[in-house]
Amino acid sequence: MREFLQRTALWLVTITVISCGFWVSSSADAAMLALAICLGAWLAFNLYHIALLMRWLRHPVPERVPDGFGVWHTVFMTLYRTMRTQSQSKKKLTHVLERFINAGEAMPDGVVVLDELDRIEWINPMAVEHLGLDRKRDVGNQILNLIRQPAFHAYMKNASFSQPLMLTFSQPRELVISLQLVPFDSTRKLLLTRDITQLERVQTVHRDFVANVSHELRTPLTVVGGFLETLSDMPEVNDQMFRQFLPMMMEQSRRMQSLVEDLLTLSKLENSPKAVNSERVDMRDMLDTLMVEAEGLSQGRHQVKLLRNCDCGLWGSSQELHSAFGNLVSNAVRYTPEGGSITLAWQDEGDQLRFSVSDTGIGIPREHIPRLTERFYRVDRGRSRGSGGTGLGLAIVKHVLARHHARLEIKSEPDKGSTFSVVFPRERRNDSQAA
């Protein structure tokens, strides 16, 4: 601008000097004519460039800035550089905005941008999933009209956003959402959402687990403590009383020991690496051992049979598999009435291998089958405790099978019996022991 003014002043001085020269050398009329001609030329020159400028302003593109003459060349070049700088800044800002939007789109948490009236300005896909919103229809609407839970309305009204709010949605599926509002300038706010459904389930399982362990340990401890208190209060303890109390105390002690051992086994499985150390598992020896254990638990009260149509072994952990199979066998013995039969089977089914334990016991109602592998889940609590179970056996089985890429199949009918089958994939087969 300064250069433009300087050059304009120079032109005016030049025209004045020329006019004065004509005034001195000629007449006043000649001087006025010369002045008029110079001013007209100067005006036409500027009007021409102003016309170029106005035409360019209709479509202001940096690449189409006019190429003027003289002082206008400087003006147009300055305008061109300014436009290029603005264009580059605009591209940079557009790129930053695109990156911000892409980052928001990819975030695992939900993000909703609200204006000063709590109307939605922008929403990412995860927030759509969490809050059941529509990205096209709901933009511009107030968030309070879309989320109608009273707790959320109270949260927005109180304007105390230091702590998150927990909301539970039941449709289209059960979700527990942690929601927090974060003001980020004088008028706008971010509504952040996070799906904590799985975390809430884990915490619920943890609370139930602690409660169940406490309950399971409290009962035998109460019994043993009661007997000890009774014995300590008696002035004299005769042999008959001692013989009466001692077996019951030992039974409760064994029950606590079994529970602690199962808890340790379960903890070890959960904290072990997912990949099991594979070794050759001799299924002939395993089946013979399981038969001896089943007959020992049965004490002649059941008919125990073994069926096998192959001598192949497995790749896996012998100790873990023995623990899983042993739990299935002991369950069959415990829940089969006297006179019933228990059958252990090892079968090659072509594309898979199957170990199964079948019994003619009390059976399990169908609605209970999906939950049998949960910790401490019992179909009949009274009968389970009476049989000596800890409620952790099938949970241990589930973890062992997961580490061996196997699955558990359960078929059962009340009062007819049950069949628990462990199905191994073909790659677990080991034929070396058959040689």
Structural account:
The structure is a single chain. This protein has 435 residues and is α+β, with helices and mostly antiparallel strands. It has four domains: 2-101, no CATH class; 107-195, PAS domain (Beta-Lactamase, 2-Layer Sandwich), CATH 3.30.450.20; 200-271, Orthogonal Bundle (Helix Hairpins), CATH 1.10.287; 279-434, 2-Layer Sandwich (Heat Shock Protein 90). The protein has eleven helices and 13 strands. It has helices at 2-25, 28-58, 71-106, 125-131, 150-158, 197-233, 239-271, 283-298, 318-334, 381-387, 393-403, and strands at 110-114, 120-123, 165-169, 175-183, 189-195, 279-281, 303-308, 313-316, 341-348, 352-359, 407-413, 417-425, 429-430. A five-stranded antiparallel beta sheet has the order 2-1-5-4-3, sandwiched between helices. It has a five-stranded mixed beta sheet with strand order 7-9-10-12-11, covered by helices on one side. Strand 9 (341-348) and strand 10 (352-359) form a beta hairpin. Helix 8 runs parallel beside helix 9. It is elongated and about 150 Å long. It starts with a helix and ends in a 5-residue tail after the last strand.
